[in-house]
Write a structure and sequence with these properties.
globular; mainly alpha; about 280 residues
Length: about 280
């Protein structure tokens, strides 16, 4: 009976996974197809998946019309800074939340849950006023500060799970050898948390790289704008999009996230499996 009921359930899971993959892949594949289509095919009444006459003209036009490289440099600086600062702050906080069960840990957990419920629109006005008083409007430093605060709750939640998966006996052994809390965190816990730290840094990096709303509101001058904001410049005055260059620029904007994830996804998966298996 269990085998019969298990097969339909597994088939349903595979079908749901396939639908989800199609849901993710179709827009991205259509984006790639559009990026390589000439203007004549973009205006065709019968669009095709594979361009009949693929061209790199859309990429050249995108770089000629907008400062994509400069904007990508701004996005890279902001994303890397956000990932580094978020991990440095979240790692000791996660250690305290995982090892210390009390009011502080309960309050921090409540903060994590509540902070994820607030939409961007509710906080943008007070956030703008605070940054204005700090003279951080139209600065990459102010944008990094906002991204770090926004990424911290989820980063803290992720790292707390990784810390709880580590055996406490290793820390007790380090304490017996005379190591203090800080030394134990740096020499024992942090190396074992490397997969979790990498996964958390990846989350913070991708979040900051793709974020649009805060960057649009806080960055005013073109030389400070990040890549997602610059992509909106391919829209005309009447809201008509220049599809070819826009698709080419959007495709290039997605590559860093894909490359970073492809390079470290094995390490992330290995860390998750290691945390799930206890000796």
């Amino acid at each position: 009976m269990s085998l019969r009921t298990g097969r339909p359930a597994r088939a349903g899971q595979y079908a749901a996974l396939l639908c989800y993959l199609v849901f993710l892949a179709v827009p991205f594949l259509w984006l790639i197809s559009t990026a390589f289509k000439p203007a004549q095919e973009l205006g065709s009444l019968h669009p095709t998946w594979i361009p009949d006459h693929p061209t790199l003209g859309n990429f050249r036009q995108a770089f000629d019309e907008q400062p994509l490289l400069h904007a990508a440099g701004n996005s890279l600086l902001v994303a890397l800074s956000t990932a580094l600062i978020a991990v440095v702050i979240a790692t000791p906080m996660a250690y305290v939340m995982a090892r210390r069960r009390g009011r502080l840990a309960a309050a921090a957990t409540g903060w994590v849950v509540v902070s994820q419920a607030f939409p961007f629109v509710l906080v943008i006005i007070p956030l703008f006023l605070v940054l204005k008083n700090l003279h951080l409007i139209n600065t990459l430093a102010g944008l990094v500060m906002v991204y770090v605060v926004w990424a911290l709750p989820f980063a803290l939640w992720m790292l707390t799970g990784y810390v709880r998966a580590l055996p406490a006996e290793l820390e007790e052994a380090a304490a017996v050898d005379g190591a203090g809390r800080l030394r134990t965190l740096v020499s024992v816990t942090a190396p074992l948390l490397a997969p979790g730290i990498v996964a958390t840094a990846l989350f913070a990096f991708i979040t900051a790289w793709n974020e649009f709303f805060f960057a649009l509101v806080l960055l005013k001058t073109p030389e400070k704008q990040t890549l997602p904001v610059v992509l909106t410049h391919f829209l005309g005055a009447e809201g008509v999009a220049d599809l070819g260059p826009l698709a080419a620029a959007a495709f290039l904007a997605t590559l860093p996230s894909l490359v970073v994830f492809a390079l470290i996804q094995r390490r992330i998966t290995g860390g998750m499996l290691a945390g799930a298996v206890k000796s």
